[in-house]
């Protein structure tokens, strides 16, 4: 039976940064049985306005929540930037480039963007930053640039965003289990590895079937719909 773990995230999403150690454990333990596919979400894609003080305060609050919940490090020097536009589309597109050019380096590259943005106070909206990360993954700069600037990669990135919307993904990170053609959410939002491990163990061992659960839920919903449609009995 074909199985796949679909990870939906954004390299500039704070809860995805918080989830990063969990993702690493999932890939390490289950990657051979159920390979991981990364879909980029476009959390703040195509933003064009510089961050206001109010917007900075809102984002900073999210960072503080993630730090408290997950223990991940954050560098709050980011909020001293003036005129920064929080557009996550370039970071998502750079991830798509690596997904196509060197898929075995994708998670490492994705993690470099996470660390650059949240810890190293690096501008992770710029091609120059991505070229530095690509070089560390032994990816040719000219080839990376050509792919990054191509219309094909732009459209593939937008297709990822569209897949998220069509699949009903409402937040990041989201982990989806695919069993043949059946999809089911494992987690929406941050969850510790200990909470996910028993479900993943049961799934990869065959003890739990996503397809069977989805079909059972659909059958139950259909029965409830039929019951709701039945007119009440009347006395004569």
CATH-assigned homologous superfamily:
Glutaredoxin
The main β sheet shows up as: 4 strands, mixed
CATH topology: Glutaredoxin
Give the name of the CATH architecture.
3-Layer(aba) Sandwich
Uncertain ranges: none
Walk me through what this model shows:
- The chain is α+β, with helices and mostly antiparallel strands.
- Helix 1 runs parallel beside helix 2, helix 1 packs parallel to helix 8 and helix 5 crosses helix 6.
- Strands 2-1-3-4 form a four-stranded mixed beta sheet, with helices on both faces.
- It has a single domain, classed as Glutaredoxin (3-Layer(aba) Sandwich).
- The mean pLDDT is 93.
- Helix content is 54%, strand content 11%.
- The radius of gyration is 21 Å and the shape is globular.
Annotate the secondary structure layout.
Elements: E1 3-9, H1 14-30, E2 36-40, H2 53-70, H3 89-101, H4 106-118, H5 127-136, H6 141-148, H7 151-166, E3 174-179, E4 182-188, H8 193-205, H9 210-229
Parallel strand pairs: 1-2
Antiparallel strand pairs: 1-3, 3-4
Helix pairs in contact: 1-2, 1-4, 1-8, 3-4, 3-7, 5-6
């Amino acid at each position: 039976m074909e199985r796949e773990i679909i990870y939906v995230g954004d390299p500039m999403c704070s809860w995805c940064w918080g989830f990063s150690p969990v993702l690493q454990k999932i890939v390490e333990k289950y990657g051979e049985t159920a390979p991981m596919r990364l879909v980029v979400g476009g959390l703040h894609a195509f933003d064009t306005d510089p961050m206001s003080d109010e917007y900075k305060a809102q984002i900073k609050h999210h960072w503080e929540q993630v730090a408290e919940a997950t223990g991940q490090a954050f560098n709050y020097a980011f909020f001293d930037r003036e005129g920064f536009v929080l557009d996550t589309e370039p970071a998502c597109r750079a991830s798509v480039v690596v997904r196509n050019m060197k898929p075995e380096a994708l998670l490492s590259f994705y993690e470099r963007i996470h660390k650059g943005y949240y810890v190293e106070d690096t501008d992770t909206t710029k091609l120059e930053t991505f070229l530095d990360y690509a070089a560390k993954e032994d990816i040719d700069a000219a080839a990376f640039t050509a792919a990054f600037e191509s219309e094909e990669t732009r459209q593939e990135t937008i297709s990822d965003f569209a897949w998220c919307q069509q699949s009903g993904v409402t937040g990041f990170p989201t982990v989806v289990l695919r069993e043949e053609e059946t999809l089911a959410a494992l987690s929406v939002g941050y969850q510790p590895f200990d909470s996910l491990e028993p479900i993943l163990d049961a799934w990869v061992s065959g003890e739990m079937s996503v397809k069977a659960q989805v079909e059972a839920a659909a059958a139950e919903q259909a029965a409830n719909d039929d019951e709701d449609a039945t007119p009440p009995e009347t006395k004569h």
